[in-house]
């Protein structure tokens, strides 16, 4: 597998939504052997997130296909807080914006059982050089409980590493 170059841009955000402080994290991975036009269809297909996201299942439940307002439901398993336990998570998200020309989509968490009160994500395929591209994931979200900014970023960095590996593996 071609190495994945991971650049993590950390930006504290002072935006406020619902009178809560929000954090911003921007992750970028180099995708070798695939142009942005080749990567984009995997991002654009909002209903099959499981192809590039390390979750067990995702599917759309309502709304216009591939258009703002479409609702996606995802589930997955992660290690639980007790030894040898598993936590099954779910998220219900809404597609906010799709821009095929700029190859990005934006979505927002609406319901979940992981304690997230606000999270907006944007996934984008960006052109690179020599037939390569970049996969970018930008998130703005409210911290969970007393979560610090480094904890927010660390929690998302592991997920991004999994996503970028799965995207890269599509083109190996």
From TrEMBL:
<dbReference type="Pfam" id="PF10604">
    <property type="entry name" value="Polyketide_cyc2"/>
</dbReference>
<keyword id="KW-0732">Signal</keyword>
<dbReference type="GO" id="GO:0004864">
    <property type="term" value="F:protein phosphatase inhibitor activity"/>
</dbReference>
<protein>
    <recommendedName>
        <fullName>Polyketide cyclase/dehydrase and lipid transport superfamily protein</fullName>
    </recommendedName>
</protein>
<dbReference type="InterPro" id="IPR023393">
    <property type="entry name" value="START-like_dom_sf"/>
</dbReference>
<feature type="signal peptide">
    <location>
        <begin position="1"/>
        <end position="19"/>
    </location>
</feature>
<dbReference type="InterPro" id="IPR053249">
    <property type="entry name" value="LFS"/>
</dbReference>
<dbReference type="InterPro" id="IPR019587">
    <property type="entry name" value="Polyketide_cyclase/dehydratase"/>
</dbReference>
